Amino acid sequence: MRHLRYFVAVAEAGTVTEAARRLRIAQPSLSQQIRLLERRIGTPLFRRLPQGMELTEGGQVLLDGVNRALGELSSSVAAARAAVPVATVGMCRGVAQPVLARVERILAGGGRLKLSYRQVDSEAQGDLLRAGGLAFGILRAPVDTTGLELRTVNDEPLGLVLHDRHPLARKPRLTWSDLTGQRLLWFPSERAPGYAATVLAHLRERGWAPETVPDDNSSHTLFRHLLIAHDDLVALRTLSSSHGDPDLVWRPVGPEPPHERLVLVASARTSWGPYLKDSDG
Question: Per-residue pLDDT for 246 more than 50?
Fold first, then answer.
């Protein structure tokens, strides 16, 4: 590449002396580099005339090719700078649309990004982030934070979801004693073990240690079917993720309800980490 740059400079300047001045190198060194290039290509590139350097036919062909290549390289560099990077975001189940919108505002503050979403359980996201399989993750805390940058994107109390004819649905607010005998429709804890352990421990401390009924699918139809079919079954959800079903109601529970904290995560050792630090969201 350096030899070609020297060749173009001599062709444009017309003399080795002027080209050396423009390149800020010694004239003998430049002359030697041109001779080396000619030997490498296997043909003379210049006619050495008293008034300066004149391109041979082969030299003109090379100059035209180099100029085309430099033009294409310049266009490619400009296109690369204008390209919008694609960032894969792992997302745990049940993220409400307002939370997702806030995540996108935060990431937009760090620069242009095209986001691609994958459903990934909270427990699996940490290893994928550290290994580079994900750029960002949206998951339920607490999690192992080793090597990760975290930013809280939602911290909201959990309430009870139940069908609208459930005996407890008549109450605008529930207490822990109201839940005696109620079972809990609960996700598989291995999806987010830190979150599951924290919430279930919180319930036990307030006197409710419910039997859990596995909700091991992502179908809202089956979720609502189970709740509607049983008067002794409730679910825990945030208010923001519980809208939109006329047959189900959300009720606050207390005192001291458990919280769901969703965090936006990136590996601290990648270029994605600063998106969480520097943007305002």
Answer: yes
Burial, 15: exposed, middle or buried (Cβ in 10 Å; 0-12, 13-18, 19+)? Answer: middle
pLDDT tens sequence across 182-210: 999 999 999 999 999 999 999 999 999 99
* Residues 237, 259: Cα–Cα separation, whole Å: 9
Query: Can you tell me the mean pLDDT for 15-41?
Result: 92
CA distance 243 to 246: 8
Look at domain 155-260 and name its CATH class: alpha beta
- The SS3 assignment for 72 reads helix
Q: Closest Cα to residue 237, out of 224, 251, 225?
A: 251
> Residues of the chain with pLDDT > 70: what percent?
98
pLDDT band at 278 (very low <50, low <70, confident <90, very high): low
Give the right CATH number for 86-153+262-278 from 3.40.50.620, 3.20.20.140, 3.40.190.10, 3.30.230.10: 3.40.190.10
